[in-house]
Amino acid sequence: MSTALILVDIQNDYFPNGKMELRNPEKAAANAAKVLEWFRQNNKDHIFHIQHIASDPGLGFFLPNTEGVKLNDSVLPLEHESIIKKHFPNSFLKTELESKLKDKGVTKLVVAGMMTHMCIDATVRAAVDLGFETTLIEDACATRDLSYQDKIVPAEQVHYAFVGALNGMYANVISTEDFLQQNANMN
């Protein structure tokens, strides 16, 4: 199978009591875990966990050697699963992700993770630019409220604006349930 799962930044700082709490990260992580389990049963050699490590302490989260930088228990990698460490929103930028995918003959990606408006958006767009056919599991992603000047944009609107912009041109955007149903015949 030439499809790989890319789980982006499902790390403790995005969860309650973390340094950059998102809206409903537990729900997104639970859905990501369902997709991860499907890959473990059907395509175990094509699972990539992306871990953001802050190269600048000024970022304030994902700081090296903290509890917050660790991948969340809901999607902990198994020994044979790849962990790609990154320092930028784009999971491909200055990482070995592209070469590892190409070494395995991967042409299609399934992406899930955090934050929808930042690392998910950057990673999906880069993946398509690199020639990968991409599926985004939208309910396995999470984000947070954003603000500009005196305007607050609620997390749900941020999320749907970004997945709406990615849908079609950059990715096939679907839910966890739809992904599992579409791929049920592979079990």
Low-confidence stretches: none
The largest pleated sheet is described as: 6 strands, parallel
Looking across the biggest beta sheet, what order are the strands in? 3-2-1-4-5-8
Number of strands: 8
Query: What's the rounded overall pLDDT mean?
Result: 96
Structural class: alpha/beta
Order of helices and strands: EHEEHEHEEEHEH
N-to-C span: 13 Å
Structure description:
The protein is built from 5 helices and 8 strands; from the N terminus they run βαββαβαβββαβα. The protein is of the alpha/beta class. Helix 3 (116-129) links the parallel strand 4 (108-114) and strand 5 (133-142). It is globular and about 45 Å long. The protein starts with a strand and ends in a 5-residue tail after the last helix.
Helices, strands, pairings?
Layout: E1 3-8, H1 25-42, E2 47-52, E3 82-86, H2 97-103, E4 108-114, H3 116-129, E5 133-142, E6 146-148, E7 151-153, H4 155-166, E8 172-174, H5 176-182
Parallel strand pairs: 1-2, 1-4, 2-3, 4-5, 5-8
Antiparallel strand pairs: 6-7
